[in-house]
Design a protein that fits this description.
Largest sheet: none
Radius of gyration: 18 Å
Helix content: 40-55%
Shape: flat
Structural class: mainly alpha
Number of helices: 3
Number of strands: 0
Strand content: under 5%
Number of domains: 2
Length: 78
């Protein structure tokens, strides 16, 4: 697919980088049964809580860590 092709043939390399794939199987690896697509994020959050993660840890894993990173590092200056 075009997105995968773009990621694999960038300006940083002359060779194709297949990442987790290979020349014979160049696509993304299959999704696990418990996480088919973005609609399953709720199940991911529930699962993290069920195995003992604290609410603040779950919040970080569900996007809070990225939000904090961007807020702290990509702010306007001047």
């Amino acid at each position: 697919d075009s997105v995968v092709e773009w990621m694999r043939v960038g300006r940083w390399t002359k060779d194709i980088d297949y990442g987790e794939g290979s020349a014979s199987a160049p696509g993304f690896p299959p999704m696990p049964d418990w996480f088919r697509d973005s609609r399953d994020f709720g199940a991911l959050e529930t699962g993290l809580r069920q195995i003992g993660f604290k609410a603040e840890e779950v919040a970080g894993l569900m996007g809070g860590n990225w939000h904090r990173f961007y807020a702290e590092n990509f702010t306007p200056t001047g």
